[in-house]
Design brief:
This protein has 348 residues and is of the alpha+beta class. The protein has a domain at 2-8 and 122-213: GMP Synthetase, Chain A, domain 3 (2-Layer Sandwich), CATH 3.30.300.10. The protein is 33% helix and 24% strand. It contains nine helices and eleven strands. It has helices spanning 13-31, 62-73, 92-99, 123-138, 175-192, 225-228, 249-266, 301-311, 316-323; strands spanning 2-8, 36-44, 47-55, 82-88, 107-114, 143-154, 159-169, 200-203, 219-220, 272-279, 288-292. It has a four-stranded mixed sheet with strand order 1-6-7-8. Strands 4-3-2-9 form a four-stranded mixed sheet, with helices on one face. The longest helix is centred in the N-terminal third of the chain and has 19 residues, at 13-31. It is flat.
């Protein structure tokens, strides 16, 4: 009955890339609401590549966007980085489908909700996310931006089994100080959710974590899709969110599926729910809608499927309009997960 979830910090190299890609998306949409954007970022050391497709009346200043993200997330290189960009316009074949109000790609998207926390997210994932949020908020001068948290939860005994934090630190910092700070964060997070504090504690298990960020690992947009969603407790269609404007159903479809799953719980139709939407490129309506309530449903699944189709406009244009997805600042979604901040339209 052990289940494990993780979360990562804004200074993790993959998350740096997600933030750069989403910053480009937001910049384009602020200046041209009809922008089509699909941008990927790669970072290694102080070398950065931004590539993809942008069709917009606005031409983003990618270098300044990259610098602003690095200033927050890896300040050691924000004034000294090597940038290569390769941007073209959206493929006319894809554009034709979107212009006709169809989906910008094929694929399947999943939304999930559970009543085990007030955020309607799995408890181990919520605990790991809260730990990273607390670690970043602590602002300890001896710590550096790259960090990960991982929580193993025993659903049979309803207790935390193992709590792990790996956090980058300065060379001259005493490892005991890092352990004490992380242990205190773990305890505070566990207590805030009414959970046990006698769990196994792991802090920087290799003994040190001085080299981090893009100098330890290569970062790529869209490589932490489980941290972006439900911590592995639900299916994932495989498509990343960051770097994509909302005509891409990888993003908009997943947001709508999450809203539907939450609404099903709000209506007391189930205590746990997963919704799958699937699309074909250039086609307006989803090719399938599926609901799984994991034996917690109060109404038949067939009823829920028809209820969804009756109450929600599942066309890409309908999702974008209904959730106001052209007005979202996607930079706010690219760290700590896309599904818990209550001010986001799919969470309200």
């Amino acid at each position: 009955m052990l289940f494990t979830s993780e979360q990562i910090s804004a200074g993790h190299p993959d998350k740096i890339c997600d933030q750069i890609s989403d910053a480009v998306v937001s910049d384009c949409l602020r200046n041209d609401r009809n922008s089509r954007v699909a941008v990927e970022t790669l970072i290694k050391d102080n070398h950065i590549i931004v590539a993809g497709e942008i069709t917009s009346k606005f031409e983003p200043h990618i270098e300044s966007t990259v610098a602003s993200v690095l200033y927050r997330c890896q300040p050691s290189i924000y004034s000294d980085f090597d940038l290569v960009t390769h941007i073209t316009k959206q493929s006319p074949d894809i554009a034709q489908g979107v212009d006709n109000k169809g989906a910008g790609d094929q694929g399947m998207m999943f939304g999930y909700a559970t009543d085990e926390t007030s955020k309607m997210l799995p408890l181990p994932f919520v605990l790991a996310t809260a730990a990273i949020e607390s670690l970043e908020s602590a602002g300890h001068p001896g710590l550096l931006p790259d960090a990960k948290a991982q929580v193993t939860y025993d659903y049979g005994r309803r207790r935390i089994d193992t709590f792990l934090i790996s956090t980058q630190h300065r060379e001259d910092v005493d490892p005991d100080d890092v352990f004490y700070l992380c242990r205190r964060i773990m305890t505070n997070v566990a207590e805030s959710y009414g959970k046990n504090t006698d769990f196994r504690v792991l802090v920087n298990p290799t003994g040190r974590f001085v080299t981090g960020g893009s100098f330890a690992d290569t970062g790529v947009t869209g490589r932490k899709i489980i941290c972006d969603t439900y911590g592995g407790a639900a299916h994932h269609g495989g498509g990343a969110f960051s770097g994509k404007d909302p005509t891409k159903v990888d993003r908009s479809g997943a947001y709508m599926a999450r809203k539907i799953a939450k609404d099903i719980l709000r209506h007391k139709y189930a205590r746990r729910c997963e919704v799958q939407l699937a699309y074909a490129i250039g086609v307006e309506e989803p090719v399938s809608v599926m609901v799984d309530t994991f034996h917690t449903g109060k109404v038949p699944r067939a009823y829920l499927t028809s209820w969804i189709r009756k109450h929600y406009d599942l066309t890409p244009a309908g999702i974008i309009s209904g959730l106001g997805l052209r007005d979202v600042n996607y930079e706010r979604t690219s760290t700590l997960g896309h599904f818990w901040r209550q001010y986001l339209p799919w969470e309200e």
